[in-house]
Amino acid sequence: MKIESEYELDDPRRTLEHRDIILSKPFLKRIYEEWYTEILQEAKETPEGIMLEIGSGGGFIKDMNSSVITSDILELPNVDQVFSAEEMPFSDKEVSSIMMVNVFHHIPNVRNFLKESSRVLKKGGKIIMIEPANSLLSRFIYKNFHHEMFDEKRDWTFPQSGPLSGSNQALPYIVFKRDKKEFEASFPNLSINKFYLHTGYRYILSGGVSRNQIIPGFMYSFFKKLEGVLPNCTGLFQTIVIEKNE
Q: What is the arithmetic mean of pLDDT over 116-134?
């Protein structure tokens, strides 16, 4: 059953509503806890410096590590700073890690974001993101059952509207997989450190933030093991780690 909202997608209250849904659904919250654990572990392997999360409004990473500076483009009560990912209020080489969950595909000009990330990151610093994947299952789900566009044939841009309604879920695949050579040529001091797919069936069964959970929580481990079979075909999400090498 679909979870209805009285707020428009770009209304800040909708983002806070998403956060409440994630925290209230044990199955979905456990997925996010695993994602944040993975991201924070990756962030440990960076130089000492600012740990920054972009697009924090709907999440709870600060509950797991209070040192993280949370941010969002929307004015929200649960974030530390408000700014655009394309223009960050930090000095050169001040940031050790930039963490993102389902944010990259909402950034209108990812070239500006990558350029700005390159400026603020220290050598050895990382952009660590979890984003929608491009797999057999994900293409079917995103193109038929999701309100956001998924078009793997587009360029690095998408029609702009609001901070959440404007997006292309295929953008991470486009930039870091399909156009990998273009990315490497455009940003020679950034390298793709990791790129792998994961989290398929569990997210569907959790209902995400728009539908009710389908199965009881005790079956979580079973479906996690099932996802280990053919993740490149069934993964709905992917982890991408970009490292600054100079």
A: 98
